[in-house]
Write a structure and sequence with these properties.
- The chain is an alpha+beta fold.
- Helices cover 21% and strands 32% of the residues.
- It is built from two helices and nine strands; from the N terminus they run E-H-E-E-E-E-E-E-E-H-E.
- The strands form two sheets. Strands 1, 2, 3, 4, 5, 8 and 9 form a seven-stranded antiparallel beta sheet that branches. Strands 6-7 form a two-stranded antiparallel sheet.
- Helix 1 runs antiparallel to helix 2.
- It is globular and about 40 Å long.
- The termini are far apart.
């Protein structure tokens, strides 16, 4: 029997967010200038989404202390700033270590629904 994880947004409601509703939740948070979002799965895995509203860093880890794996756009030149963390810190990342916001939404929706990266996703292991 296949059991799919459920995911909750850490600082919102303890009610699980569906794969169909996670993008709407992320958009709402971005509109409220909350650019860092952490989701925790029912099995303890973590999914981080940090954005500047144009690009996003998406990281999937096995839990606290695991560096995990993150989505990439190999060969993309430059860097982008404006990634504001919940503690107010502003970060800048190489563009090849982030993906377009549209791609990031697709990735998070898929992970929330299936628990894994989409087959066509590009990501690197940071462990």
């Amino acid at each position: 029997m296949l059991v799919i994880e459920s995911w909750v947004i850490n600082d919102d409601s303890p009610v699980p967010v569906s794969s169909a509703g996670v993008v709407e939740a992320l958009r709402s948070r971005i509109d409220s200038e909350r650019l860092e979002t952490w989701l925790t799965s029912s099995s303890g895995r973590l999914l981080a989404f940090v954005t500047n509203a144009e690009r996003a860093m998406v990281v999937l880890s096995e839990g606290e202390g695991d560096p995990g794996e993150h989505a990439v756009a190999p060969g993309t030149a430059g860097s982008s700033d404006g990634f504001v963390l919940s503690n107010g810190q502003g970060d800048e990342y190489p563009d090849e270590d982030t993906v377009s916001i549209r791609e990031a939404f697709k990735l998070v929706e898929h992970i929330a629904g299936s628990g894994s990266w989409p087959a066509d996703a590009r990501w690197v292991v940071d462990r």
